[in-house]
């Protein structure tokens, strides 16, 4: 039985559907990231799990219990808010202590736990400062400490590291990962930072316009995007229009003058082929032909822009001394069929 | 004016460019009187309409008055000595500030929750209820107070209703009593408290309440530990406004309190228009002003010191 289950969760604001039939299961101790463009419903989803917004449909089960039936203050979740939501009239230490006070933890234990939590986020010097007198990053770390100190079994993190500098962010990422590993806290992390999601998560959930596009491990989502949106959203990709059809040896997709075998069963019709720039190489035969429009030296690698009958392609080659085509040269490009993803043509590809 | 200044310095900079040994750019010349000139109309209005009458009232309070001789243009502080010595005036001033204090307390007790509930309401109802709350401000003070008098008279709706329900045997006296004045003043002044608390609620991040909930606080605890401390400055500044207006209110105590239950404002009025003892009326007015300023400035200092840390 999964630890957290979102079942067809839906939220509408007027006639705008902010979260549309979101279903997701999260195992205990898993760290899962919600990724997606601004306004795709990530915060709204978290707010429904937390109970600050009433769902218009669907269920949320936590550890076998119906979460939506519980009041927000009885859910016992740890939450880091996108806007921090610190108590402005309390000092940093008082902010962190609040949840412990509500749990009636004895004064001495409380003080020690607050000090530990502040130390964890590197703010041991700032305990008696008010939020208005702290920088954005410091406030964010207080918010993180406040959520961590109550040792919740489920932690909802709405862009908890967005305002930290690179070094501090890395430290906090390691800290989150450590807590998740050692304490076994289940975490749902909303982030704009793809590399953060890739580095931290057991699985990523890519959302767009309130709908889940793909749930997969970071590597799987990167290598085998479920659709054009995911392919475009996660890293740079080349998306080539083609025609899916049945060939002699099974299903194939035809892209301009090249033909590629399709592994999964697919209906015939218009489709798209996604392949990452770094997975494309120059071949002698059996590939897609084109002309080099431009090549740019980037230190460790070369960036090529190639004009083909199926559109422009981005190609990245390592700068390892092997001979590379010049500008305006006729070339043929190809890739391993394992490195490409084929998907139905998607009008919503953004 | 800052625009003019920056254009000036640009002109200088381009002029200085061709020369190789350009002198360090001179600070653009500023005419130091501009701010005063700009605020002159406001200051003039302030001086003519407020300062001059105030000074004249003060000077008047130093004159003396005799029943036969009228106002005599002498400078003395006999009026102040009279008031300070006379227990009748003590009673009036004490009553004035007692009424003001109770009204302030009631306004805070009703106004702050009212503002909070209003903010929680959904769109169409919120506007409607806000209008109802602010309603008293839209009606002339005289007709509103007369309404109260009708409602509270011994044959008024309230007393008739209470007697019909058998709750009281004889009518409760509202007219010419402190209770009546306090109720009416609270009704008139509560909008100021609502507006003031409303303004401080506006700065409240609703997610902060959610944060407290998520940490396990019940709704009452959220109220006491999170919402209330944040709107205290609003309640206190509202209290200052309400106190000042209640202590110097005239129309409401005049109609409900009548001649029998005098407060400082009605006392001054009577001295001016009935006894014709203008100097004594002026003295009452000056003392009321001084007491008001002292109390309000004192409270304000207290508030500022207490909340400087949190809100700046
Ligand atoms: N209270 C509200 N009333 C109306 N629409 C809302 C409300 N809250 C959110 N929305 C809409 O719902 C959609 C999803 O909002 P949400 O805050 O969940 O986005 P998000 O994915 O968290 O974006 P971001 O990455 O910018 O934080 C947005 O289009 C937003 O305009
Ligand atoms: Mg958000």
From TrEMBL, chain A:
The keyword Transport applies. GO terms for biological process: quaternary ammonium group transport. GO terms for cellular component: ATP-binding cassette (ABC) transporter complex. This is ABC transporter ATP-binding protein. It comes from the Bacteria. The keyword Zinc does not apply. Keywords: ATP-binding, Nucleotide-binding, Transport. Pfam families: ABC_tran (PF00005), TOBE_2 (PF08402). InterPro entries: AAA+_ATPase, ABC_SmlMolc_Importer, ABC_transporter-like_ATP-bd, ABC_transporter-like_CS, Mo/tungstate-bd_C_term_dom, P-loop_NTPase, Transp-assoc_OB_typ2. GO terms for molecular function: ATP binding; ATP hydrolysis activity; transmembrane transporter activity. Residues 4-234 form the ABC transporter domain.
Automatic annotation (TrEMBL), chain B:
Its main location: membrane. It is found in: Cell membrane. The chain crosses the membrane at residues 36-60, 97-118, 125-142, 181-199, 235-256, 276-299. It holds the Pfam family BPD_transp_1. Residues 1-20 have a biased composition (Polar residues). Residues 1-27 are annotated as: Disordered. One of its GO terms (cellular component) is plasma membrane. It is a multi-pass membrane protein. Residues 93-299 form the ABC transmembrane type-1 domain. One of its GO terms (biological process) is transmembrane transport. Coiled coil: none annotated. Keywords: Cell membrane, Membrane, Transmembrane, Transmembrane helix, Transport. The keyword Nucleotidyltransferase does not apply. PANTHER family: ABC TRANSPORTER PERMEASE PROTEIN, INNER MEMBRANE ABC TRANSPORTER PERMEASE PROTEIN YDCU-RELATED-RELATED. Belongs to the binding-protein-dependent transport system permease family. CysTW subfamily. This is ABC transporter permease.
């Amino acid at each position: 039985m999964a630890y957290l289950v979102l079942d067809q969760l839906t939220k509408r604001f007027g006639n705008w559907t902010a979260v549309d039939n979101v279903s997701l299961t999260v195992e205990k101790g898993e760290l899962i990231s919600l990724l997606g463009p601004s306004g795709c419903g990530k915060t709204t989803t978290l707010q429904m799990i937390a109970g600050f917004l009433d769902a218009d449909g669907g269920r949320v089960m936590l550890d076998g219990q119906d979460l939506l039936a519980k009041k927000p203050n009885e859910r016992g979740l740890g939450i880091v808010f996108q806007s921090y939501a610190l108590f402005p009239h309390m000092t940093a230490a008082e902010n962190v202590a609040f949840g412990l006070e509500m749990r009636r933890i004895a004064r001495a234990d409380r003080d020690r736990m607050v000090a530990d939590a502040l130390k964890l986020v590197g703010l041991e010097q700032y305990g008696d400062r008010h939020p208005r007198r702290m920088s954005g990053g410091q406030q964010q770390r207080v918010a993180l400490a406040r959520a961590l100190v109550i040792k919740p079994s489920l932690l909802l993190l709405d862009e908890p590291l967005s305002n930290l500098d690179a070094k501090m962010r890395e430290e906090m990422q390691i800290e989150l990962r450590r807590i998740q590993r050692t304490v076994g806290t289940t975490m749902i992390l909303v982030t704009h930072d793809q590399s953060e999601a890739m580095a931290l998560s057991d699985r990523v959930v890519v959302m767009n316009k309130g709908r889940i596009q793909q749930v997969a491990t970071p590597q799987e989502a990167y290598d085998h995007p479920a659709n054009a949106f995911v392919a475009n959203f996660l890293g740079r990709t080349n998306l080539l229009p083609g025609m899916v059809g049945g060939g002699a040896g099974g299903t194939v997709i035809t892209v301009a003058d090249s033909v590629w075998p399709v592994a999964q069963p697919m209906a015939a019709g218009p489709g798209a082929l996604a392949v990452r720039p770094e997975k494309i190489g120059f071949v002698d035969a059996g590939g897609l032909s084109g002309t080099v429009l431009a090549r740019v030296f980037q230190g460790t690698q070369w960036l090529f822009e190639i004009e083909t009958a199926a559109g422009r392609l981005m190609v990245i080659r390592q700068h390892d001394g092997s001979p590379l085509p010049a500008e305006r040269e006729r070339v043929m490009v190809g890739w391993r069929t394992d490195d490409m993803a084929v998907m139905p043509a998607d009008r919503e590809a953004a | 004016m800052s625009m003019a200044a920056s254009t000036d310095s640009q002109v200088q900079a381009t002029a200085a460019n061709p020369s190789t040994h350009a002198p360090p750019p001179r600070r653009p010349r500023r005419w130091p009187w501009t701010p005063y000139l700009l605020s002159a109309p406001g200051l003039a209005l302030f001086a003519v309409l407020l300062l001059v009458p105030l000074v004249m009232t003060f000077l008047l309070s130093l004159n003396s008055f005799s029943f036969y001789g009228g106002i005599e243009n002498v400078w003395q502080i006999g009026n102040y000595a009279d008031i300070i010595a006379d227990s009748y005036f003590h009673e009036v001033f004490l009553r004035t500030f007692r009424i003001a204090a109770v009204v302030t307390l009631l306004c805070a007790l009703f106004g702050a929750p009212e503002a909070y509930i209003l903010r929680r309401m959904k769109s169409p109802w919120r506007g409607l209820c806000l209008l109802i709350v602010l309603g008293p401000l839209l009606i002339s003070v005289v007709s509103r107070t007369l309404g109260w008098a009708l409602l509270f008279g011994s044959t008024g709706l309230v007393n008739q209703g209470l007697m019909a329900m058998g709750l009281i045997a004889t009518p409760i006296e509202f007219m010419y009593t402190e209770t009546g004045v306090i109720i009416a003043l609270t009704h008139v002044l509560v909008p100021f408290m609502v507006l003031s608390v409303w303004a401080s609620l506006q700065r409240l991040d609703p997610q902060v309440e959610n944060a407290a909930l998520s940490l396990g606080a019940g709704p009452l605890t959220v109220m006491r530990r999170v919402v209330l401390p944040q709107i205290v400055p609003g309640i206190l500044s509202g209290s200052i406004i309400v106190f000042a207006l209640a202590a110097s209110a005239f129309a409401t105590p005049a109609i409900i309190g009548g001649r029998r239950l005098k407060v400082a404002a009605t006392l001054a009025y009577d001295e001016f228009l009935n006894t014709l003892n203008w100097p004594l009326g002026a003295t009452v007015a000056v003392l009321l002003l001084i007491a008001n300023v002292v109390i309000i400035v004192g409270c304000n200092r207290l508030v500022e010191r207490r909340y400087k840390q949190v809100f700046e």
